[in-house]
Amino acid sequence: MPELAAVDERRVDLAFHCVGAFEQVDNYPEGLVTDIQPRNSILGHWEDFFGNDPAGDQQGIRLTSIENFIQRLETVQADDAKWYLPDTLAVMQFPVSQ
Q1: Structural domain spans, the chain
Q2: CA-to-CA separations, 36 to 12, 39, 40, 47, 62, in angstroms, rounded
């Protein structure tokens, strides 16, 4: 994270995480989440783009353990933090914090 994040000392309201191939990045998602402590995390790029029907059941991206990503995320996120694994084409709304 940029040094500004450490100086600001405010938590991030919303973070987007790439689940696909996360195991190819050292200390991810732990390092990022520890640094920014997001209130909400959206887990993206988890779906199998080639094997899913957007109107039907969704399958995770091949060769990636979504469960492992979530477990690692939960070990470092704040107690009041939430994560979301949205369906394809989902619409989400989050309140703006002051």
Answers
A1: 20-84
A2: 6, 9, 11, 25, 29
